[in-house]
Amino acid sequence: MNRTLILLSLPLTLGILACRRDVAPQATEAAPQASAQAAQAVGSTASGVVLETMDASNYTYVRFKVPSGELWAAGPQTQVAVGDKIEVSLEMPMAQFHSATLNRTFPAIYFTSRIVKQPATPAAH
C-alpha cells in the first residue's frame, strides 16, 4: 500500500517541482496567513462544493466551498463540474504557487493525490 502511494504521488511531485522553476516571489499580506492556515490542516481532508474547475496538463484544479471559506486544490485529472460535491486530501500546501500552464498565481493551494467526487444526494420532497 505505501509503495503504491509513493509510486502514485511521484509524478505529481515531479510535475509540481517542474512548474515551480519559474516562480517569482510575490509579497502579499494574504500569503503568510493562507500558508499558515494550510499548514495546520495538512493530513486531513476537506469536503465542499466545486465553484470553479479547470484542467491543465495531467492535473485538475478545483476551487471549492468549505465551511471556513474557499480552498484551491490540484490533483490528478478528475472529471468534476461546478456544483459537484468533492472530498480532497490535504497533503501538500503551497503559498504563492504560479502555474505557468495556466498563467495564474494561486495565493494558497493544496496539491493532492486524489480528488474524490461524492455521490449526489437525493433532493428532499
From TrEMBL:
PROSITE patterns xrefs: PROKAR_LIPOPROTEIN (PS51257)
Annotated protein name in UniProt: Uncharacterized protein
Organism expressing this protein natively: Geothrix edaphica
